[in-house]
Amino acid sequence: MGSVLAIDYGLKHVGIAISDAEKKFAFPLSMIENKSDKYLIEEIKKIVEEKEAEAIVVGLPLNMDKTKSKMTESVENFVTKLKTTISVSIVTIDERLTSFAAEENLRECNISSKKMKKYVDIEAARLILEKYLDELHASST
């Protein structure tokens, strides 16, 4: 069994989270500066190889009414490029409200607003992964 990597794609920063091999727990991993899609894909490729990830889940930022936005299109374009470069299963999952929930979680941990910017993308990736793992386990029972 391999782990699952989660990506919270942002124009400036990209949050990364990873599951355990049994796909039960989601852990925050890192934040990558989004210098370019090429740079980002190379960094993700390194993590996939190092962590032996067998799948990637990418948060898809839909509007509250489930319609697509400009950011949704940016994520879809990135996912298309990712799929041509990395040969593991890559899926998207609705990520509405994950950034809000991530900020709430960090506030509850008494993380200062200054530090919050550094961790919010990573925590959002962890929440995306947690949602994916919950759905994965719900469909297998």
Quick rundown:
Helices cover 49% and strands 25% of the residues. By secondary structure, the protein is α/β, with parallel strands linked by helices. The chain has one domain (3-139): Nucleotidyltransferase, domain 5 (2-Layer Sandwich).
Structure characteristics:
5 strands; about 25% strand; about 50% helix; about 140 residues; alpha/beta; Nucleotidyltransferase, domain 5
Written description of the protein model:
The chain has 141 residues and is an alpha/beta fold. The chain has one domain: Nucleotidyltransferase, domain 5, CATH 3.30.420.140. 49% of the residues lie in helices and 25% in strands. The protein is built from 4 helices and 5 strands; from the N terminus they run βββαβαβαα. The protein has a 5-stranded mixed β-sheet with strand order 3-2-1-4-5, sandwiched between helices. α3 crosses α4 (113-139). It is globular and about 40 Å long. The relative contact order is 0.22. The mean pLDDT is 87.
Outline the fold blueprint.
Elements: E1 3-8, E2 13-19, E3 26-33, H1 37-51, E4 53-60, H2 70-85, E5 89-94, H3 98-108, H4 113-139
Helix pairs in contact: 3-4
Structural class: alpha/beta
Order of helices and strands: EEEHEHEHH
- How far is the N terminus from the C terminus? 18 Å
Number of strands: 5
Shape from CA axes?
globular
What CATH first level would be assigned?
Alpha Beta
Q: Please state the CA-atom Rg, rounded to the nearest Å.
A: 14 Å
Largest sheet, if any?
5 strands, mixed
**Number of helices, counting only DSSP H or I runs of 4 residues or more:** 4
Q: Output the strand order for the largest sheet.
A: 3-2-1-4-5
CATH 2nd-level architecture: 2-Layer Sandwich
Domain module count: 1
What is the strand content?
Answer: 15-25%
- CATH-wise, what's the superfamily? YqgF/RNase H-like domain
DSSP helix fraction: 40-55%
Return the CATH topology.
Nucleotidyltransferase, domain 5
